[in-house]
Amino acid sequence: MSSVKDAITKRSSTRGYEKEPLTPDEIRALIEAGLKAPTATNRQEIHFTVVPGDAQILTEIEEEKNRMREIQDAPHNFYYEAPVVILISAEESFRWSQVDAGIAVENMALIAEELGLGNLIIGCIHDAMHGDKRKYFEQALQIPEGYEFEIALAVGHKKVSKTPHEYEEDKQVTYL
Predict the structure, then answer these.
(1) CA distance 15 to 33
(2) Could you tell me which of 28, 48, 126, 174 has the fewest CB atoms within 10 Å of its CB?
(3) How far, in Å, CA of 124 to CA of 107, rounded?
């Protein structure tokens, strides 16, 4: 088991996955990490939809994303063929839902790293999930009434590795 600091230091976005499926225990650990994330006023307004990577609905979301962005012949789909995609939705009328979803997805990304799984935090489908096909996607994904898509996480066993990103503390941080 790694420390939280180790997981933060080692984690990077994975853009290539093995076909090996996740185990039920791995999926459960990811969901528990998301459920344990703090939420504003302890609202617990976050909902998780676990989708297998070969689900037709993901292909439809990819096609809508590409249509809206006028992309033709994309070399990969938005989740880089991961065996599992977890879509996070939240109450659309709650002011802090986007922040709460971000906290939940980070918890999940860090536990994925601890489990030795690759992961990719996904926001690029936001427009497709909120566009003309919004109601269709919400129904197909069983997103609760009054909730909306916020962010997603692709997860799987790494096929490719990437060095974690560099940063420039002196340019990114101000100490008063």
Answers:
(1) 22
(2) 174
(3) 20
Cα separation, 133 vs 60, in Å, equals 10
pLDDT for the residue 42 = 97
pTM reported for the whole predicted model = 0.95
Of the candidates 4, 37, 5, 20, the residue with the CA atom closest to the CA atom of residue 81: 20
Tokens coding 104: 């939940």
3-state secondary structure 101-116: HHHHHHHHHHHHHHCC
Question: Which residues have a Cβ under 8 Å from the Cβ of 112 and sit 6 or more positions away?
Answer: 11, 30, 118, 119, 153, 155
**β partners of residue 121:** 153
Residue 9 identity (one-letter amino acid): T
Q: Find, among 91, 111, 96, the residue nearest to 31 by Cα.
A: 111
